[in-house]
Every structure is written in C-alpha cells, then in structure tokens.
Amino acid sequence: MRPRAGAPFPAVPARRRRRPGRIDLTALSASDLARALARGEVSAVGIMAAHLDRIEAVNPALNALVALRPRAALMAEAAAADAAPRRGWLHGLPFAVKDLVATAGIATSRGSPLFAGHVPETDELLAARIRAAGAILIGKTNVPEFGLGSHTFNPVHGTTRNPYDLSRSAGGSSGGAAAALAARLVPVADGSDTMGSLRNPAAFCNVYGFRPTWGLVPADPGPPGADDSFLHTISTEGPMARTVEDLARLLAVIAGCDPRQPFGRPPEPFADDLDRDIAGTRIGWLGDWGGAVPTEPGILAACEGALACFEELGARIVPLPPPMPFDALWEAWLDLRSWAIAAGQGARGTDPAARDRMKPELLWEIDRGRALSALAVHRASVLRSAWFARLAALFETCDALALPAAQVWPFPAGLRWPGAVGGRTMTTYHEWMAVTVPVSLAGVPCLALPAGFGPAGLPTGLQLFGPKGADRAILRLGQAWHRATDWPARRPPPL
User: Fold this and answer.
1) In this structure, are residues 135 and 93 in contact, taking their beta carbons and an 8 Å threshold?
2) What is residue 317's three-state secondary structure?
3) Residue 276, SS3?
4) Pairing of strands 400-404, 424-425
5) Catalytic residue among 197, 235, 338, 440
6) Could you say which of 29, 31, 43, 98 is catalytic?
7) Looking at residue 228, what is its pLDDT?
8) DSSP three-state, residue 259
9) Where are the beta strands (DSSP E) in 101-195?
10) Which domains does the chain show, CATH number per domain?
C-alpha cells in the first residue's frame, strides 16, 4: 500500500496568520478549507484569489473550466462571504457547476451550438442547493455535446485535456470537473452519470466520482411539459472530489427529496462516522465479465492490485463468474438509453435546422430511439428488472461488487472515441465504456476510486458498488481505501 499522504489542515500560529501565502490553498481538500475558514485561519478572499491565480495559470492548457465569471466580481463575492454569517459548509468556497446544469446569470451551453451563449434566469435544483450551502459559483465545467460520450469535446468550448498528459482525454461527460479537480482548479465538484460520466473521468484523472442510489439526488423536473422528463431512471447527478470526505459532504448538500417529484430518498449524514474497520467485508470481483468486456493491457492488473490492498485492510475478495449474459444487459441498455435521449430531445430531434447542428452520435441516438416500439422498450425494462433481482441475490453473499471503472487508459485527445479495445472492434461510439452499464441499469450506489497508474504514467480506477441504499457503506469502504492510499495526492506534472 502507498503511505497515506495529506493530513488535516494544520493549526496556524497567530504570528503567521498575516501571511497565508505560505500555505498552498489550492492543495487542500474542500473540507479542510471549510474548517480553516470557520476557524479564521484563512479567508474566502484568500481562497478565491489562490484558485483564480491557479486557473489563470493552468486552465488555458487544460480547458477544464468554461464560462468563467470576471475576477473582480468573484473577489467581491468572496469579500461579502467573509463579512456574512456562514450559510453552509461550502460557505465562501469557489465552485464550478457542470455545464449541463442551468445556472442563473452564467452561460449554460450544454456543449451544443444550439445553446451557445444561453444565460438562464434561474438555477436548476442542484445549482440552487449548492448556492444555498454558501458556494460562490465561478463558472462551469466543460462537457461533451449534450453530455454524450466519455470524451469531453464540443464545438462551443473545445476539448478538455488530461492533467496527467495534455495529449490525452480527460474522459467525460464530467471530464471538465475531473480535470479541474486533479489540477487543483477547484476543491470539489459536481457531475452527472448516465453511462459512467462520473466514473470514467474519475478513473482517467485520478480522482473520486460517486454515483448515488437512483433517486437520492433528485433531477430538476423542469417547467410543465418539459421534454427531458425526470421520470427517466437511468441518470443521476452526484459528487466528485479528491477525498471521500468531500464526496460525502457534497452528497449531503445535493441529496434529499423534492416535493415536485414522485420518487425520492431522504438524505443521510453521509460524512458522519466515515472511518470504519472494513475487516471481514466481502467484495465480489467480476473482472472482465468472463471475457465479455474487453480491456486494454494493464487495466485488470491495476484493479486487482487495488483489490489486494483491500485484502490488506481485512476485506475478503471473492472472484465471481458472470452473473448474467453481458450481451443481454448491453442490448437492454442500448434501447433504454436511446429511448430516453430521443424523448429528451423532443421536437429538436425532428427539426432539420436543429439536426444540422447536432453531432452524429446524438443523431444516431435520436433516430434509434424514435424507431423503437413500445414492446421493445418494455422488453428492455423487463430485462433490467431481472438484472436488479439477480444483483440483489449477489448482495446476499457479497457486501460490495467490483469492476474496472474504465476499459482503456486515457486515449489521445484527437480521437472521437476508441475504435477498438483489446483487439475487439467497437460497434458504437460508447461500447468502449460498456463496463459501466451494469451499475447504471440497476441504479445502485457506486464509487469510482483511483487504482493507481500504468507504465506510461496514466491513471485508472476501480468501480465499487453495493445494494440500493448502501451509499454510506460504500463511502466508508472508499474512506478506508483513501486513508491507506490517497492516490489523488500524486499531483499531475507542472502545467
């Protein structure tokens, strides 16, 4: 195991409090910044200035943050935060919201030319909750067009680069968030996940991404008659961070029932009592699903190395055979995803002027989804239910299950998507990340945790997931892992 790097924010002697420049505020976790701010050891102005300086120096090379607000306005808000009563644990901290989420007064493009320059008048629910917790919104994190595909590039803002190798992809769709975290541009971030968008970029950028139990973080229902219905149950928002404590604390902010929605789960004190002995925990290892999920050389070895570390912590690793034919899961996923995307695009999907400005992958999803019959969608839903039941049976003998968080190492940023993995040709733009589908179909909680680096110095990750509602249990496993390894402390090379 790697020795744990990092420690709680040190007490600052009174004689040094006038010289906060001695401390690299961008290197601290959001939780440590919040504690230091509450104790009066640092100021919101100092925190904001440090992060804006870092953004000005590094973001031009990364392109992780977009729609950045003027420095003068942000510094004024930080000064106001210093003078105001604390509103929540994010009080006075800089925060960039994913560019799929509407933010009042900040351009929200969704990475699409159809929304370039659009400035919403109101916040979506997630952004509103983050603001209410005291965060200062500085801009947005970059995304692929409409969040499709796990490579962050779009015609509005361009390509986000990987901080560990600027020639490589940062993943997606939360690629801007993952890259910004790894490069210390922001202390904590939000993301969203339909098909691995919290997990794949976390693996690519050596940070944590947490997909919560579906319904724990409510989606914004939108105005009456909105096309993008919150009744679609394959997507969710969630937190990203460099520490598990930050994940848990942000999850507590964005979770909780919304009275406008028919589904929901009550919030929990996710950050309380995180440190637990995990001895005896049974983790089922699904590997490459009996060869059904191709991976690049070294990916499985890195994940198995991570599992060996869990064994050192007292967990029991149980190799498992494929619990269900992967082809069946994949076909059900294709239908449910295409159906949801086609429905979400609504009238835009058939408007020739709009279609001319959409990327080919989106058009493929729309046309495929519109061609599906109701019976085809029903069959996919029945298969999904069967998978959930099979998964529930697995959790009777295992406390958690594990899969790779990515099938490939971060690939060249000039590619749209990998055309082959492990010698197998990919038939769709997203088949190369099919390993995320079992979790997405079931809607269960899943932590993507850093699993170290390959020979080329590129990171990868491991998915650790549990039964519905076991969010706290999975976060506690992640906390034990973080205490033992702290891979995010391995910073990217100077940019």
Assistant:
1) yes
2) strand
3) coil
4) unpaired
5) 197
6) 98
7) 55
8) coil
9) 136-141, 153-154, 158-159, 161-162, 165-169, 188-193
10) 21-489 (3.90.1300.10)
Active site residue: 150, 169, 173, 338, which one? Answer: 173
468 catalytically annotated: no
Please list the residues that pair with 401 across neighbouring strands.
284, 465
Sign of CA dihedral 300, 142, 341, 420: negative
pLDDT value for 2: 45
- Average pLDDT by stretches of 10, the chain with 495 residues: 35 36 89 98 98 98 98 98 97 98 98 97 97 98 97 98 98 98 98 97 98 95 58 88 98 95 90 97 98 98 98 98 98 97 93 97 98 98 98 98 98 98 98 98 98 97 98 98 98 94
| Calpha distance 368→249 (Å, rounded) | 39
C-alpha 223 chain-centroid distance: 26
Q: Where are the beta strands (DSSP E) in 125-278?
A: 136-141, 153-154, 158-159, 161-162, 165-169, 188-193, 208-211, 236-241
Residue 166: count of CB within 10 angstroms of its CB: 15
* DSSP secondary structure letters along 4-45: P---SPPPPPGGGTT-GGGS-GGGS-HHHHHHHHHTTSS-HH
Helix orientation angle between 326-345 and 374-394, rounded to the nearest 10 degrees: 130
C-alpha span between 90 and 188 (Å, rounded)? 10
Active site residue 338: no
Q: Which of 422, 227, 408, 402 is nearest to 318 (CA)?
A: 402
Please state whether beta strands 446-453 and 459-465 pair in parallel, antiparallel, or not at all (unpaired): antiparallel
CA-based nearest residue to 242, from 167, 185, 164: 185
- Residue 340 structure tokens: 């949801």
- Other C-beta atoms within 10 Å of 53: how many? 13
CA–CA dist 101, 97 (Å, integer): 7
Q: How far, in Å, CA of 469 to CA of 233, rounded? A: 15
3-state secondary structure of 172: coil
Hey, what are 33's tokens? 């910044």
In single-letter form, the type of residue at position 65 comes to L
Q: What is the pLDDT of residue 233?
A: 86
Task: Label the pairing between strands 153-154 and 165-169.
Answer: unpaired
464 near 480, Cβ under 8 Å? Answer: no
Residue-wise over 439-477: b if at least 16 C-beta within 10 A, else e? bbbbbbbbbbbbbbbbeeebbbbbbbbbbbebbbbbbbb
